[in-house]
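Researcher: Here's the sequence for the chain we discussed earlier.
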Amino acid sequence: MASSIFSGVKFSPILAPVNSGDSRRSRCVKDRNKVRFNPGSPRLTPNRVRAEAQSSIPYTGLWAQPTANRGRLKRSIVLGQRNAIFRKEATGTSLSQGRKFCFTCKRSQPGIRRSLPSAFVDRSSFSLLRSRLTSSLRKNSQILNATVGPDEPHAAGTAWPDGIVAERQDLDLLPPEIDTTELEAFLGCELPSHPKLHRGQLKNGLRYLILPNKVPPNRFEAHMEVHVGSIDEEDDEQGIAHMIEHVAFLGSKKREKLLGTGARSNAYTDFHHTVFHIHSPTHTKDSEDDLFPSVLDALNEIAFHPKFLSSRVEKERRAILSELQMMNTIEYRVDCQLLQHLHSENKLGRRFPIGLEEQIKKWDVDKIRKFHERWYFPANATLYIVGDINNIPQIVNNIEAVFGKTGLDNESTPSPTPGAFGAMANFLVPKLPAGLGGTFSNERTNTADQSKMIKRERHAIRPPVEHNWSLPGTSIDLKPPQIFKHELLQNFAINMFCKIPVSKVQTFGDLRNVLMKRIFLSALHFRINTRYKSSNPPFTSVELDHSDSGREGCTVTTLTVTAEPKNWQNAVKVAVQEVRRLKEFGVTRGELTRYMDALLKDSEHLAAMIDNVSSVDNLDFIMESDALGHTVMDQTQGHETLVAVAGTVTLEEVNTVGAKVLEFISDFGRPTAPLPAAIVACVPTKVHVDGVGESDFNITPAEIIDSVKSGLLAPIEAEPELEVPKELISQSQLEELTLQRNPCFVPIPGSSVTKLHDKVTGITQLRLSNGIPVNYKISTTESRAGVMRLIVGGGRAAETSDSKGAVVVGVRTLSEGGRVGDFSREQVELFCVNHLINCSLESTEEFIAMEFRFTLRDNGMQLETVKEAVMSHFVGENMEVSIVGDFSEEEIERCILDYLGTVKASHDSAKLPGSEPIVFRQPTAGLQFQQVFLKDTDERACAYIAGPAPNRWGFTVDGDDLFQSVSKLTVAHDGLSKSEEQLLEGGDRELQKKLRAHPLFFGITMGLLAEIINSRLFTTVRDSLGLTYDVSFELNLFDRLNLGWYVVSVTSTPGKVYKAVDACKSVLRGLHSNQIAPRELDRAKRTLLMRHEAELKSNAYWLNLLAHLQASSVPRKELSCIKELTSLYEAASIEDIYLAYNQLRVDEDSLYSCIGIAGAQAGEETTVLSEEEEPEDAFSGVLPVGRGSSMTTRPTT
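Model: Thanks. This is the structure I predict for it:
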């Protein structure tokens, strides 16, 4: 049941970031670059698509959920739906691991994706009283503003061209009691800037920003943003900025010296910048030595003093070529097509940061060094430091000491000044390095001496490109719809783009305009769902995006329609028809009330969480806001300013302002309408026709235009108001159920008390009289917010052989149905929005889980939506409810009794679903090694290697309980190292005995083992042998099922994939011959403990810890598994790790592997040449598709 009215509607951010930790990591969306409101994403955050370099090592923490995609990153970037993504700390690279990965398609945004709920509010709150207005004016006039101006090197070209003036709002539409003169003055006031943000600049031009932030404690973020990216590359340099990112980062010796300090580092390259970042403790573990100077020194070497060694260049060349193969999915190629057509008039459409394969193969060290000399200097960079900082002057002194002398001798750093036509002139005619013919010129400087004499100047505007704007009255002709066909596509998708300059949000009036657009556009997706969801709609999805992009220097509005190929014309017609309806009739007063309140309530919640936002989220928000030219505010300021402007908004103005955003669709074809920047359809080459079979799918640009026009001619009528229920279960119904069932707490099995509370963890355990066990924890880390999870034993393992898929279908049906009592799905969704409730359902092999996120209101918690699902579908003893949030003990226990205790008791264990045992099939040649070949225009390859493992609690697929023999298990290696023997001779021997007797012994040791194996896979298969760019080891440890398994995934080229598989197997089997070193174990402990410490701030993580605490199907889970987690990790020895390792089956008879190869000749007798055997002219004359025009780069570690 989707619970957000904002699903499918996306905006760019203007307010403040929120902590990504309160977002479910499994709902991360990394394939889009703009903010999206949906059940998993309720937050307005800055947007950017970027090619990154990041570790793909999955989170192997103890409580990682055993789902198929856990820890893996989605790599597609659909520009038409640019969503914000969460930083996935689990995949971040540890400095101690020395990894460098680039996610060319990951677009990391600050903040989280949270649903924006709404509620009925007192309408009087919308009137702007004179006293409030005057107070706001007085208050904000006293605040200094430290915003970016048009001369900032990293501010996007956001000014409107001369002669194009945005229309003023019709102030006559305002209520008569508001003085228009005073209001006009108020709206012209500048927004307040972040009160704690410190900005400065060194004599060499290096700009720096410092922000104290206490989350996480005793740690800080240091990011060096160099304002150079793929947009600055010449025709024969495509991908060279990304290459420098790799070489500079991994070649840094000073970065390597941070090994063992607990620091993590990474890097990424985009169109407009390259960023190197380090996440570090403020002090070393065993002393009070300040780590700020060491971290800054490492960044100084990486950015400005790299060593371009031939060996490192060759190693990273192989890595990038492998990365290019890995990311070249069909989704990625679609994204490339969209960008190419959206920005066909400038270099953004043909300068994707990953670069061109044939050029990457040719560059020598001198070529790479020259590009670095041209762009990497302090005046073309900005340093961001955000973290647990107490002494800003000391940090400034550190910055001056480390960077102050860099570049003073040979660099000129004049401040850019606006020309005769203002900032826009700089945007249209960017500053270029002296001696170059220009960014668009084919002329080259061939003399090495000339490159040393270049007078390096930063660009006044980033990115330095010229756009063809989609504005009324432009003389540019409409570009015909573009069609991209590919055999790997299965569905029809069309994107209609509109491109305008970014409007900087710097005044209250700017903020007001953004608010009105958001209210207007938020109605579209929910309307479509309510109108068509109950029927059989012709579309799969219809989404609207209106987002700023600092990386592209523009604001893009996109209508994206996806459908089955046979329904594409009706789908386009319906989407255009609904856009017209919204534009012509506008939002209703009820919608205005709901959406306005949704934004205000969400803003209020963000303000309450101001002290819980992570440093990295704050930093990313500041970086993107600066790139767009927006004023940077903290959460409290963001809420106060939003409240101030909300009172000035009228229904007429909302509909007037919002309608202009949709004119490129609703008025399509009219002389006064803005021309779409591009229309791009992505379609399959073949479709299945009932009764005929497979046939060609044919579509023409004229047919696309006709389908759009059919939507413009279809009849429309105004949207009716929808009644929103005030409650799903009335108080009288609740009282009647209470009298009937007399809910109460009963003694917990194994004890004589009805309530168990642990003071150390704050966990309370209860059991209701209907048999439902409940765990809860009061947590204030996420202010006024809570999460609840209902877990039911069963899952897909409970399906019988003749009902495969029944659980999945049932859960999907429950989710899509969404009815509660007499209320429709639409009414329930609006009720959830009204009460800030977000619901999601999921099925795994073992369980069905229903999760609720909610915000605490003044009238207490609202958990009624749980009731119907609980009553109808679950048995008491087979369920468990866990709740974590910022509530009082009295409040939560009252709600538990009222809404869960009144559920009808069901104690019939015979009704519990049984499960057929999961077994590993007997090895056969055809099953153990499989190959899959896929015809494709581009070559790719990947492989999976899997084998059995025990479950989290020591049970094996053979039915053995390893704890019965753990003391007798032998360690088959050459013995412990001397230091380990000395350690175990002391008092820590008792800790080891305690660990081996603990029910979580195998969960702890398997998690540490996974970290060690991942590190070795990277070092050997990726770094030393150069066989892959992306390799990872992932454990699936079940709780209820008596088995587990592991999977090694590796991407490569067709010519190297077999060698890569063999190398992975060698690493898996090599832990005996190449013994685990103490430093490897220490590094693994430090990584997992750091993650654990950071995640404890998250309510969602506490839900994972509480899971199965009272589940009868997981009898070994007990409170000590949570309470003693840190000490259990610390007690683990190398001997313990080998005890776990010996339970992994890695022999040839136990391994299952599958290799997939895609290419034009895949599966044919002719084998693909390995890269070492490829002739030099293998790519001459070949126009790269998708891969060669790859999009952004990924983090380097």
